[in-house]
């Protein structure tokens, strides 16, 4: 069997210490294969974003380890790209300049950088907006810039934390289809955190459901829906069954959280 792209081995995370310590994640074991698209869902506060931050090297586990291509994660690296819900664009830079900024420290020649930037501008459907500033763009277009900027230096892993959460339903659907096309064309491993169960199923090869805090893997569901996918797949009976299973899991965890809160209040 080929080595997994990402291995999360017994990872735990505690914030603070002593009486103020909060156990965000107890023990997560998870493997992600190269070019796999994995969605991560769960109740609020179950550690989804914390897990993504640790994979990205933005935070450190307090237990266990995370391996990428067999090597331990010891901080951020250019083998990982990050896309957040906030666009984090430089308002004083054009679309082209925002994307090119990610290549600032690259040893590539200027012409190669320009070629890469042009390629990803086209890939995310922003041809004609190269010299436009962020304030002139819609939310969906800003997120396209953020995706292009995260891919332009060709990371092998893309970490996405609620990237479409602030978009309206129609724009969100279009961005999901765009993301799938970019993923299929550029062969990158994706870990995608979302609260939207439909979105998780539509995008993923596998959906990982985390239990309520302290987070751990409650269930992994292989999504065996044909690719390429379009919006009509949400009417498929198998899609509905996946959704029922995942929502049942999340409801169970939500009820646990409510019960614990009630107990703490008495």
From TrEMBL:
InterPro entries named in the record: AAA+_ATPase (IPR003593), ABC_transporter-like_ATP-bd (IPR003439), ABC_transporter-like_CS (IPR017871), ABC_transporter_ATP-bind (IPR050166), P-loop_NTPase (IPR027417)
Entry keyword set: ATP-binding, Nucleotide-binding, Transport
Top-level lineage group: Bacteria
Record Pfam families: ABC_tran (PF00005)
Entry keyword ATP-binding: yes
UniProt xrefs under Gene3D superfamilies: P-loop containing nucleotide triphosphate hydrolases
Boundaries of every ABC transporter domain copy: 6-237
Keyword Ubl conjugation: no
Family stated for the protein in its record: Belongs to the ABC transporter superfamily.
Full protein name: ABC transporter ATP-binding protein
Taxonomic source organism: Pseudooceanicola lipolyticus
């Amino acid at each position: 069997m080929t080595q997994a792209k990402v291995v999360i081995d017994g990872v735990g995370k505690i914030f603070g210490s002593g009486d103020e310590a909060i156990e965000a994640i107890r023990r997560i074991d998870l493997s992600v294969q190269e070019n796999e698209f994995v969605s991560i869902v769960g109740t609020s506060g179950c550690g989804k974003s914390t897990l993504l931050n640790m994979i990205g090297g933005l935070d450190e586990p307090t237990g266990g380890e995370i391996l990428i291509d067999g090597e331990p994660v010891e901080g951020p690296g250019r083998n990982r790209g990050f896309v957040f819900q906030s666009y984090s664009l430089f308002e004083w830079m054009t679309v082209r300049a925002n994307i090119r900024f990610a290549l600032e420290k690259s040893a590539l020649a200027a012409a190669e950088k320009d070629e890469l930037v042009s390629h990803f501008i086209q890939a995310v459907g922003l041809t004609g907006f190269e010299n436009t500033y962020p304030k002139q763009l819609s939310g969906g277009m800003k997120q396209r810039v953020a995706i292009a900027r995260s891919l332009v230096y060709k990371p092998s892993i893309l970490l996405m934390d609620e990237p479409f959460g602030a978009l309206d339903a129609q724009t969100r659907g279009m961005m999901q289809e765009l993301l799938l096309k970019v993923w299929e064309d550029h062969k990158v491993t994706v870990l995608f955190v979302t609260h939207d169960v439909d979105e998780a199923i539509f995008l993923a090869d596998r959906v990982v459901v985390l239990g309520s805090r302290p987070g751990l893997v409650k269930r992994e569901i292989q999504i065996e829906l044909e690719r390429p996918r379009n919006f009509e797949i949400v009417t498929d009976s198998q899609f509905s069954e996946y959704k029922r299973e995942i929502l049942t899991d999340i409801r169970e965890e939500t009820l646990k959280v409510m019960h614990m809160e009630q107990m703490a209040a008495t």
